[in-house]
């Protein structure tokens, strides 16, 4: 008989979605936290939040690594500072410039490899499908296909599953879940542009503020501009 | 009407399998060549071969990038020099120590992201299923599942396919195909251990020598030891 919880790899960017996903995972598993620097503008700030969140949850197994190719191939305003980042609400008719090509497949490939080495049976990732920017690699159908690839492409007997516990939640539901689980929102960072004080204008700040506003809860982090929901 | 061939991303390690895969791809497509340093012992030698093969095929689009996580998480003798590499014929009953956890998923994630940015509709990869070391991420079922994930996880309308033209070939058939297509075997490198003169003893040298031996063709590269097929 085993003592203690099984290990689960949790991909944690340092944003509110991944922090709540970690809070959910930590209820039933011992989290092994993964952060990836793929050249995003706010990578250093994310890593700082990642460290504080990991300390908060007393996480021993941490992997902070990088995926240099996404910076090299360009193709996203989240990485390439010569492309402007969209402001405000997502445009449902198009994929925003912040979409990073097939990023979640790269992140999951690292997570699955690490899970195979440390013997973790689950990967948690905080993707959100509907109430989001509409990235194609945040759809549940993608995660189902990737889970199958992971089962087939690793050592026989591995039953690694991909868990996306907040994928169908609204942003307000994610905030409410985080509050219920005492997730440390004060340690998280969602802004795509700034690393000191969140801009309050980019699509990610918009979605975060919308979530807190609709949940009727005050966002504990400071903003340069409080956005449309606080005017 | 388009002038010229469509572009296809080809993952090229510098070994005989990927060189023949490139030769096949180059018949119908303009190759965009991808090499990945994931911390393998012979990465520098591979990269040297990659450059020579790219020059041979006059390839303009080249991406040489790295995946640092596979070195960080360990778990493979191909990367971790403290683990011994198996000699001789593959043991069909077990996955060898040279298996790199979910490596092909990471390589394909890079390939698909690059394909999306440069507008390539196909990825070629030189995996071999049966006449090989038995790595789980070299099975056709894995590639089929990954192709589905790639279609679902990239911009709508993308029809990126994963092509594995030599996956069901025997090693001798790969050699014969390469000879027919005038693939530059003299520029390739398969040895897992050495970077100057191939050892002739590791599993990869074994499989390569078996292929040339069964095809009745002389391998143009020098070996420290010619192996069981030449004694």
For the record, what CATH class of chain A applies?
A: Alpha Beta
CATH structural fold name of chain A: Rossmann fold
Q: Which two chains touch over the largest interface?
A: A-B, 43 and 43 residues
Q: Please summarize the sheet with the most strands of chain A.
A: 5 strands, parallel
Superfamily (CATH H level) name of chain A: HUPs
Tally of helical runs of chain A: 7
C-alpha end-to-end distance of chain A: 56 Å
Contiguous low-pLDDT stretches of chain A (5 residues minimum) are: none
Oligomerization state of this entry?
homodimer
- Series of secondary-structure elements of chain A, N-terminal to C-terminal: EHEHEHHEHEHH
Largest sheet strand order of chain A: 3-2-1-4-5
Structure description:
Two copies of one chain form a homodimer. The first copy, chain A, has 231 residues and is α/β, with parallel strands linked by helices. Chain A has one domain: HUPs (Rossmann fold). Chain A is 36% helix and 10% strand. Chain A starts with 6 loop residues before the first strand and ends in a 16-residue tail after the last helix. Chain A binds chain B through residues 63, 65-70, 72-75, 95, 99, 101-106, 108-110, 112-114, 116-118, 136-137, 139, 141-142, 145-146, 148-150, 152-156, and chain B through 63, 65-70, 72-75, 95, 99, 101-106, 108-110, 112-114, 116-118, 136-137, 139, 141-142, 145-146, 148-150, 152-156.
């Amino acid at each position: 008989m085993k003592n203690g919880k099984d290990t689960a790899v949790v991909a944690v960017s340092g944003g509110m979605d991944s922090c709540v996903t970690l809070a959910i995972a930590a209820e039933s598993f011992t989290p092994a936290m993964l952060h990836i620097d793929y050249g995003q503008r706010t990578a250093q700030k994310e890593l700082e939040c990642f460290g504080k969140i990991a300390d908060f949850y007393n996480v021993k197994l941490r992997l902070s690594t990088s995926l240099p190719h996404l910076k090299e191939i360009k193709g996203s305003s989240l990485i390439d500072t010569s492309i402007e980042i969209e402001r405000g609400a997502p445009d449902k008719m198009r994929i925003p410039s912040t979409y990073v090509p097939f990023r979640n497949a790269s992140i999951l490939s690292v997570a699955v490899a690490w899970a195979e080495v440390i013997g973790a049976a689950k990967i948690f990732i905080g993707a959100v499908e509907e109430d989001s920017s509409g990235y194609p690699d945040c759809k549940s159908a993608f995660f189902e296909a990737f889970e199958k690839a992971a089962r087939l492409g690793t050592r026989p007997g591995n039953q690694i599953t991909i868990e996306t516990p907040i994928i169908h939640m609204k942003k307000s539901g994610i905030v409410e879940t985080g509050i219920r689980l005492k997730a440390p929102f004060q340690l998280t960072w969602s802004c795509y542009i700034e690393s000191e004080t969140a801009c309050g204008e980019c699509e990610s700040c918009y979605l975060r503020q919308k979530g807190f506003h609709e949940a009727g809860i005050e966002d504990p982090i400071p903003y340069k501009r409080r956005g449309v929901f606080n005017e």
